[in-house]
Specification:
single chain, 269 residues, mainly alpha, globular
């Protein structure tokens, strides 16, 4: 199981980095869109849809992505990202109040939430691919997401004592959270110093790295909440040793919009 997980992880990392550095913007958008659409089918399962209905939901997400790409274009990006930021603030409240609270129990609500999770994340990734600081902007986002996860895992294993939100994810600890966020701060500081940003820009990048890492954590927790509601461990079985597509991109769905939105005020990355 461990070997399978490592092998799949290596293959995924190579595929992602190849897409970041080698693909054109249009091909990158197409590839990222395919991943998001596959994730949409899994979200349909989290929403208790089955069979053809899952594919119809995935087709709806594909249609929205195409519409944003060819009709709305870059003009829609700041508006969608702003709405996504507000949505994730609401999602954080939902996570912290779970199992209390409301707003996600009906099937329709879950399907709408899936659109709010998946569509802005794709738009943010495409925006980062065409950003003036590309491919660094995309690589930094990936490092922050991976760093938040790896730092949390290591700190949790070594120091973890206090459960963070056991009703949502029993394995995550407060110490793990601190370890993941500390890793993100160090990454932001290191990249800022390497880019020789002025003091104001350096401080801003470190804060943005911290917020992006925090968003990654809550993106992971949000999917865990819906899996717990559905009574399943993994969102799918497409990736050996890792589960489904959503299990791999859950952190990215929240982190990408936050990071892309933050870069609007730091164009000199």
């Amino acid at each position: 199981m461990i070997k399978q997980r490592i092998l799949t992880g290596v293959v995924l990392a190579v595929a992602v980095l190849s897409a970041v550095f080698l693909l054109s913007a249009d091909l990158f958008a197409l590839g990222a869109g395919a991943v998001v659409v596959m994730g949409a089918r899994e979200w349909a399962n989290l929403s208790a849809l089955a069979g053809v209905a899952q594919w119809l939901y995935a087709a709806l997400v594909a249609a929205l992505l195409l519409g944003l790409h060819f009709v709305a274009g870059a003009q829609a990006l700041p508006w969608v990202l702003g709405a996504a930021f507000v949505f994730w603030l609401w999602a954080c409240v939902l996570i912290l109040r779970y199992p209390g609270g409301s707003g996600f129990h009906s099937r329709v609500a879950r399907l709408l939430i899936g659109l709010a999770v998946l569509v802005p994340s794709w738009l943010a990734l495409v925006g980062l691919k065409t950003h003036a600081a590309a491919p660094l902007a995309l690589v930094m986002l990936l490092l922050l997401v991976w760093g938040a996860d790896t730092g949390a895992f290591c700190a949790g294993k070594l120091l973890g004592r206090r459960k963070m939100i056991p009703s949502v994810s029993p394995g995550k600890t407060v110490e793990g959270l601190y370890g993941g966020l500390a890793t993100c701060v160090l990454l932001g500081l290191g990249i800022g110093l390497w880019r020789e940003l002025p003091t104001e820009g350096l401080v801003y990048l470190v804060v943005l790295s911290l917020l992006t890492g925090l968003a990654a954590v809550f993106g992971d927790l949000f999917e865990s909440l819906f899996k717990r509601e559905r009574g399943i461990k993994d969102s799918g079985a497409l990736l050996p040793g890792h589960g489904g597509i959503l299990d791999r991109i859950d952190s990215l769905t929240a982190a990408a919009p936050v990071f892309m939105l933050g870069l609007y005020w730091l164009p000199a990355l």
